[in-house]
Amino acid sequence: MSEEKRGLAISPGFAVGNVLLINQAKMAVEKRKIKKNEIINEINRFQKAVEISKSEISSLKINQDYGYKIEHIEILDFNILILEDEILAGEVISTIETKLINAEWALNNVLTNKSKEFSKVRDQYMRERLADFYYIAERIMKNLRGTSEPLADIKGNIILVAHDLSPIDALKYSTNNKVRGILTDLGGTTSHTAIIARSMGLPTIMSLRDISIRLNPGQKIYVDGYKGIATWKVTKSEKGEMENLKNRYVSLEESLLNFSKLSGETKDKKVISIRANIELTSELKVAKKYGAEGIGMYRTEFLFTRKEQFPSVEEQYLDYLNLFEDNLFDEITIRTLDTGGDKSGNLNHQENNPALGLRGIRYSLANKEIFISQINAILKVSQDKKKTIRILLPMISTIDEIIESIGIIDNLKKSFTLEKNVPIGVVVETPSAAMLIPEICNYVDFLSIGTNDLIQYTLAADRTNENLGEIFSPFQPSVIRMLKFIMDSVSNQKYVSVCGEMANNIACLPVFIGLDVNELSMNYHSIPKIKSVIHDLSYQDCKSALDNCLKITQPDKIRKLLTSVINDNIVGAKPIMEYEI
Amino acid sequence: MLKRITISNKLGLHARAASKLVQLTNKFSSEITISRGNLRANGKSILGILSLVASVNSEIDIQAIGLDEKKAIKEIEKLFNDKFGEKS
Question: Coil, helix or strand for A227?
């Protein structure tokens, strides 16, 4: 009997491969079984890594410029003694020989055993010496990895399995074409690692709790990134079943790609533009493939948080330039830095209530040099590429914020020769902005309704809080009425787009079509499905469904009403609905 | 050859003292074992010695077997008596 485990479906796709365990306590440890004729090579690699580590520490000792005191020298001596220690070296070597595992894994094993021994010791001083062992082991590990190309010795397709995978490691491994999928114990939809997995098109499941200790290296595993199910120990008789599943997904992808060619147009010719949200410029191609008619939102948080330091104007310029590579899209919306709330990164500062704190435009206006660098980079790309870039300002709650931001942008524009207009828009995601729509429309060129935060702030419900259940729901009457209020307040026929999870929720489509929004922007994989459903709906039906929703006060009833509109009408997308993708 | 020693330096066989001890024991060809109660450790291994967790006033047995065992025991005893060069 096979075993399976469910987690969060992070990145869609179906993959099969052999498990490569990445142990990331403090460092990533590759775990690999070796053959008998590889033993000598692994022992040599280990000894070489120890020698390099020793000479590194010795060179620190010789370099008296640091002004080492005698105590420091003794600490360095202690480190060297551990490196020379018979127990450490002897145990690692015998572990390689008896367990037939690679040097990294063997070192990690010995270290784990030693730390267990030492953790029993009551003496605090001795326990603290453990930190030295880790430090030394890290150094050996680093030098071990320097002696071999990662993944070079592995045959066949690989599924990375880790307790937690850092974005840096995810990026490093996922560029190797042997890697076909990722499984982790921790992690969620908005983590940087999830973003990378999606942009690389790697089927990924996260929050699997204990998958990293349940699997063995080299084991064959199936990754269903659509439903978030990992399956292993598949028997011969069950293999056919998995093959069938795989084939169903292949034909599903085919039909999705057919839908991607549709235009966002209802039966009665009501047009709505369907665009993609992206977080990495490497997602552009796949977004185009899935039928995106533009980039409705390029989020810049990842660009700002992937390194220790903020990107310079030049680094940002080069990144934004990539948006127009291959001329895939004529128009791209860049959202300025939206740090804070659940979008934590190294920008996060301690606040009691980050969701209500210094985030979005508030952060940009409090750190003007960052905002100015971002706007300068955007304007320079627009000038050099002669392309329209829409600037989207997040987390607006007052008119003053809009006036100040536009003042800065207009001032910076003077240094550029811009052939194309640079439209400025704001994200409507606070009830305050919703109340000020007529005035906002006097200042900006377009609006983007940010549904995730709008629901959160309208209902005062944190969407990441599991205890709140149905309170955070797009079907809450207050949410539907809030959207209606916003659309009724829009003046001067300003262009309105919708982003956030609601935009790719099929049941919400009648609401947005009925409300006459101009654009829906979503993750690229949802685009074909959404296009197909729009194709089967009529504007008139959507309008009357919306009118009915506005009379209802219970979210359950609103959900039922909208779902029945979808079920009564859809034809093309029916077969794919069961996959909820 | 076996010798029982009472640890007299204040910090016991901590990292620095253990380092010095291991640097000394590795000069001899004899096999050196250090034990405290039921715990036994390779006297040439820093990890081994640390795992004894020998603090001040604890008694340890030093065993040396080999050609230079006499010299080894003598110099090890001296290192302990000098309190590993600690001031107090």
Answer: coil
